[in-house]
Amino acid sequence: MDITQIIGLVAGICTSTASIPQIITTVKKKKATDVSPLMFIILLAGNSLWVWYGIEKSDFPIIATNVISVILDLTMLFLRIRYRQKTNH
Amino acid sequence: MDITQIIGLVAGICTSTASIPQIITTVKKKKATDVSPLMFIILLAGNSLWVWYGIEKSDFPIIATNVISVILDLTMLFLRIRYRQKTNH
C-alpha cells in the first residue's frame, strides 16, 4: 500500500464516518427536525455513484469508504424518518 | 471525457451539494442545535484530504468536487457557530 492509497483511505474514513456524530446526536436527542432529510438522500445517491466510479477505476479507497458511507446514509435516513413524529412537539 | 469521468463528476456533484439543503434549512430556521458541528469538522478534514488524493492521482472529478465540498463545509460550520446562541431558547 503506497502513500497515495493511505491518503485516500484516511480521506475516506473521515468523509464516511462524518455522519456518525450526527447519528449519535440524533439517537441521544430522539429528535432530528433541524436535520435535512434531502441531504442524506442526495448523499446516498452520490456515495452509490462513487462506489460505481471506484469499481470502474479499480480504486480500493474509493470503493471501501463509500460502501461504509452508503450504510451510514441509510441509517441516518431511517432515524430521520423514525423521529419525524417529534416535529410538532 | 469518458463515461467513468462523468460517473465521478455526477457522484461528486451529489456528495458536494448534499450539504446545500442543510445550509438552506439552517438559514431559514436560524437554528442548528440538532446539527452536529463535529460532523462538519470531520467532513472538512476528509474533503481536504480527498483534494490531496485527487492531485496525487491527477483525478479531475475528485479534485473539482471536493474543492466545492470544502467551501460548503466551511459555510455550514460558520452557520453552526453563528446560530449557537439559540441553543438555550
TrEMBL record, chains A, B:
List all membrane-crossing ranges.
37-55, 61-79
Per UniProt, which keywords does this protein have? Membrane, Sugar transport, Transmembrane, Transmembrane helix, Transport
Q: Which organism does this sequence originate in?
A: Mucilaginibacter antarcticus
Q: What is the residue range of the signal peptide feature?
A: none
Name the UniProt record assigns to this protein: SemiSWEET family sugar transporter
InterPro entries tied to this protein: SemiSWEET (IPR047662), SWEET_rpt (IPR004316)
Q: Which domain of life is it from?
A: Bacteria
